[in-house]
Amino acid sequence: MKISKSTVILLVFVLMLSIFVANVADLINVDNHVLDDTLHNTDMKKKWSQPKFYDIGASFDHLIWFLQISDIHISIFQDPFRITELKEFCNITVGTIKPSVVLASGDLTDAKAKDKMGSKQILEEWQYYKRILDDTEISKRTLWLDVRGNHDNFNVLTLESKNNYYSNYSIQGKKHPRSYMYNINIGSKLYTFIAIDACLKPGPRRPFNFVGMLDEHEIKSIHSLVNKSKNSNTDFIIWFGHYPTSCILSQTNIRNIIGKHKESMVYLCGHYHTLGGAVPNMYTLQQAGFLELELADWKDNRMYRLGVIDHGQFSFIDIKHKEWPVVLITNPKHALYMMPRKENIMSVIKSTHIRILAFSIALIKIVEVQLDDKLWFECEHIKGPLYVLKWNTTNYREGIHTIRVRVTDIDGRETTIFQPFALDGSRLSFRILPRLILMSNVSNIFQFLFGTVLVLLVIPLCILRFLHILCERKQIHRPRFRIKFFHSWLRKLWILSTVDRLFFPLVLYALYLTVGPWAVGEVIENQTGIIFAWGTFIGNSFLPGAFTYAYGFFQLFSFHLPLMLILANRVDKRLQNTTKPNNKPLSKICFILQYLPIILLIIMQTCMAYFFWLAYGTLATILCPLRTWSIFLAMMLWHQVNTMPHSCLRFGLFSGNQLHVIVHIGNMTSLDLRQQKLEQQRQLIAQKMKQKRQSGAGGMVQASNISSTQLTSHSTKWMNPHKELRGYDGPLQFNISQTNTDLNTFIENKDMEARINEVSTEGNFYQAMETADCADEESSPIDIHSPSESLPCPSPLRVAPSDGSSTFISRENNSSSPELEGNVEGNIEHFVLQPANKKMHYKCRITRDRKGMDRGLYPTYFLHLERDYGKKIFLLAGRKRKKSTTSNYLISTDPTDLSRAGESYIGKLRSNLLGTQFTVYDNGYSLMKDDKRDDRFNPRQELAAVIYDTNVLGFKGPRKMTVIIPGMTSDQKRVEICPRDESETLLERWKTKNMDNLIELHNKTPVWNDDTQSYVLNFHGRVTQASVKNFQVVHDSDVDYVVMQFGRVAEDVFTMDYRFPLCTLQAFAIALSSFDSKLACE
Fold first, then answer.
1. Burial class, 330, CB count within 10 angstroms (exposed 0-12 / middle 13-18 / buried 19+)
2. Name one GO cellular component term (predicted).
3. Same-domain pairing of 896 and 1039
4. 1069: domain CATH number?
5. 3-state secondary structure 747-773
6. Tell me, what's the pLDDT at 227?
7. Burial of 73 from C-beta contacts in 10 A (0-12 / 13-18 / 19+)
8. What single DSSP character describes residue 703?
9. Of 181, 249, 326, 575, which one has the greatest count of Cβ atoms within 10 A?
């Protein structure tokens, strides 16, 4: 079996994707990671596997609650309500909830200039922060633990710098300039809070301090804090900091440090601002067994967090400021946030009471509980915010259940919350995106993105240049691409890779960004630094690269990649103009379109350079190859591509089969005689077509002057005699240049023209014109025109039967005799099964009904025969069966009864698994299933088979279909095909080329129209929209005789016209096969 290149590429891509997915799944997986990740001692593992048991009842002991607030961003330029509402939080919220601790996890001030681009510490903002804490006397009411964020470290050289206002204006900064620890005794338990300060040292201006770092000294300090805590026999450790663990660089993974201590419960952080609201609940359970919870910012969202440790169970809830009452269920705990390594599930199973904390600015009136949507029960108030309700856990020990709590205060404010819980260890899963963000390493992600786009920019150009050298030496053949889009861009990039003046600057600039300095200037005020992709030097300090890779990725992706494509397109156009000069001056619109992309690119890069100047000043902007110099590079290369001599253009046209060198040093040689003749003939035909359109023949705008016969007969010559029609997904609009050798000359055929002129006066089929087929997300739609020419009268189609006699599909020899529009003759059941009258053609309309709960996936199709004055006659209805392994459409003469057992059931359409082969049956009994049934009991006939050529992603252009129908006898009756075994079926007989008494039809091949830049078929006004579903069925012996045609006229309305030898059921089933999805054809 021959395996194509595209198949190999697809398999390699699938393999690489599988490896990538497997690695991501392993990264975010929790259940399969055992304690070996963090523990090496067998005794310790045993202790970890048995968390401490607590007797959970109505006791107020073993209970602590605290608050967290993050990313406050106090600013003197932006949103003054941040300040006033922070004061409300300290006064009202803290005063009402009365937490033991308040954690302020970084970005206490905004530290950004009024233009939002510059960044430095602003004294007034720190003064506001300190004034709020002093005015509210927060230190007297609770323990306020604040820690620095990246904004609090903007432009700070050392901890001793004067502008390090954190040390003077925060509560903890004076005692603890970096990481620190606090122990708190409440009741019989000792709780430890450890703050992690991962701010860069020194702290550059934004944006290069997005990622934090812990050096060896800070890691040792954190180990020391943990050891002190364990020596104090702490029961629980709560970690907090500004940076998420995925955003902290360190030689020792901070997750391992946190996770290797069984007392560690949770790591609380901020910094990501929920990615602008894209990930509102950024929570995950780390592989080391602890929870990591990112809190939405105070800056824009005014969020804070209530955390509780109740009898060894950690619970939390994030709350919007000013929302009351605040309610948190601590037992049973939320099933999503269970920590099997930290919490003993038996404590919950053997608990006697449901426990709830409720807070409000007014007195709590009532607290009620509902389990699994049953009755509401009132809770008992124990002390402070604690309310309990006695319960029996035996009723809830299997599966996941729901608890709902409703709290009402005396002012009428009411809050209702609910959460799932499980007592059998059932687990819920965190969402994928939060897990990826919090469990990965953003530095590695940034490096991967930067490296990927760098490879895409450099490697293809180098490969193309290397292949060009091999081609010049005749060591390999010219590369080919079957996909038109790739074919075009491969040609452009190939040409670009051969022009030294463009190739080397593009490649060397991209490589320079990986090793050379990006900017030299004041990275910190009054401190000159040098920024590289892999790190930043500031004085004697070095900061490893992290966010720099993201910055470089954006530069390469938004500037360098578009620049390369713009230059490739322009050099290709330049070469085409060189080989076939056009003396006509460019119009203003063409001139603007030619220069618009490069102008927009330079403007965008200039804006980026301006923003960089706002952030780092004049010196850094001048000495900035990343931003400023790239502008001059783009201008220089654009000037080169427009003014360089012809001798620099080494390579010419890349067409499907060959590349031609047509330029000599100094002057271009003339085209060879053959190429000139082909070009002259092409221009002559194009001129004739234009004259015919302008002459008013047919009276239609954009109508094709070449009849369907002429287009069909010359389609293989017009495209390429050695190639099939090719396309890509979506409307086919190929910008084919005059120099593309795939468009070979159209040679006029006088005999064919004479035959074309024999047309009937009544036939009214249609031609199509291109519009996007929005409703059909499929490939290669066929466009339509609307000329007034009629359907040509056919010559007979002949199929040789097995006995040597002739099977005819013919009409009267008098071609001038017009066809009549068909009408229903006799009853519907008989009419839809009889072959069409030879002297008539039948115009039908199919309506697709997709309204209803399940009709989006299983629509109903109604077939009507069109009559004069807008009247129509119902013929058939069809609908896809719901519970079937393959597509199976039931067809009925009753639109209200689409069941197989119904009296109106007339036939069905069944497909294979891939949707590439269909068989049409009548309503008889299958002889293959019941051989004992008498043949007189209406044996099932196979009326047609439809085969679609495989065409994955539409790479081969429009659909190609084959229709097999039973042959016709001399008295115009259909040959009965009633197979008794698989070998007698239409599909098997077609595969084995046993075509006795069978007729093989094909869809008419659409042709490429150079004027409309689309595939077209002549449908004679019966279709108004382009679609991949549009087709005409013909016999190879006479492509003028259109047996059937089908196409779109509205989103859910299609026309279906057919002739002898098809019957209504056959035509309708063939149309239904076009509606069905095809895994291997789209």
1. buried
2. nucleus
3. yes
4. 3.20.90.10
5. CCCHHHHHHHCCCCCCCCCECECCCCC
6. 92
7. buried
8. -
9. 575
Work out how many domains the chain is built from and give that number. Answer: 3
Asked if residues 316 and 296 have their Cβ atoms less than 8 Å apart, the reply is: no
User: Which contacts qualify for 898-901: CB closer than 8 Å, 24 or more apart?
Assistant: 898/860
Residue 866 domain flag: yes
Contacts of 675 (CB under 8 A, 6+ apart): none
Per-residue CA distances from 37 to 34, 258, 325 (Å): 6, 12, 42
In a domain, 826, yes or no: yes
Q: For residues 344 and 350, what is the distance between their CA atoms, to the nearest angstrom?
A: 11
Element (H, E) at 966: strand 961-966
| pLDDT less than 50: residues of the chain | 1-2, 32-40, 44, 652-672, 692-693, 695-780, 785-808, 810-816, 934-935
Range of the domain at 508: 442-649
The pLDDT tens digits of the residues spanning 373-403 come to: 899 999 999 999 999 999 999 989 999 999 9
Q: Which residue has the tokens 């463009």?
A: 502
pLDDT at 824: 86
User: Phi and psi dihedrals of 971, rounded to 5?
Assistant: -95, 20
Confirm if 653 and 579 have CB atoms less than 8 A apart.
Answer: yes
Of 105, 87, 79, 101, nearest in space to 321 by CA: 87
Q: Which helix (H) or strand (E) holds 105?
A: strand 101-105
Other Cβ atoms within 10 Å of 322 Cβ, number: 12
Structural element, H or E, at residue 564:
helix 561-579
Residue type, 549: Y
What is the secondary structure of 933-950 as a DSSP string? S-TTS-BPPEEEEEEE--
Q: Phi/psi of residue 870, each to 5°?
A: 75, 5
Evaluate whether residue 193 is within a structural domain. no
- What is the tens place of the pLDDT at every residue in 597-644? 999 999 999 999 999 998 888 999 999 999 999 999 999 999 999 888
Tell me phi and psi for residue 997, to 5 degrees: 60, 25
d(CA 994, CA 996) in angstroms, rounded, equals 6
Q: Which residue has the tokens 């604690």?
A: 386
pLDDT in tens, 861-882: 999 999 887 788 999 999 988 8
- Please report the pLDDT score of residue 1076 as a whole number: 81
Per-residue model confidence (pLDDT) at position 154: 92
Same domain, 824 and 967: yes
**With contact defined as beta carbons under 8 Å apart, do 609 and 627 qualify?**
yes
Please choose, from the candidates 338, 331, 362, the residue with its C-alpha nearest in 3D space to the C-alpha of residue 427.
338
Contact predicate 960/948, CB 8 Å: yes
Q: How far from 461 is each of 477, 564, 574, 613, 705, CA to CA, in Å? A: 18, 10, 19, 33, 43
- Asked whether residue 630 falls in the same domain as residue 518, the answer is yes
According to DSSP, the residues that pair with 944 across neighbouring strands are 920
SS3 790: coil
User: Which one of 622, 649, 676 terminates a domain?
Assistant: 649
C-alpha to C-alpha distances, 531 to 35, 151, 266, 452, nearest whole angstrom: 41, 20, 36, 21
Cβ atoms < 10 Å from Cβ of 750: 7
Q: How many residues does this entry show for the chain?
A: 1082
Q: Order the strands of the 101-105 sheet from edge to edge.
A: 143-147, 101-105, 63-69, 303-310, 313-320
Q: Could you tell me the two tokens for 606? A: 């200039």
- Three-state secondary structure of 601-630: HHHHHHHHHHHHHHHHHHHHHHCCCCCHHH
Element (H, E) at 542: strand 541-544
**Angle at the Cα of 335 (from 334 to 337), degrees rounded to 5?**
70
Q: DSSP letter string over 673-698?
A: HHHHHHHHHHHHHHHHHHHHHHTTGG
In a domain, 329, yes or no: yes
Residues 427 and 489 in one domain: no
Count of beta carbons in the 10 Å neighbourhood of residue 830: 10
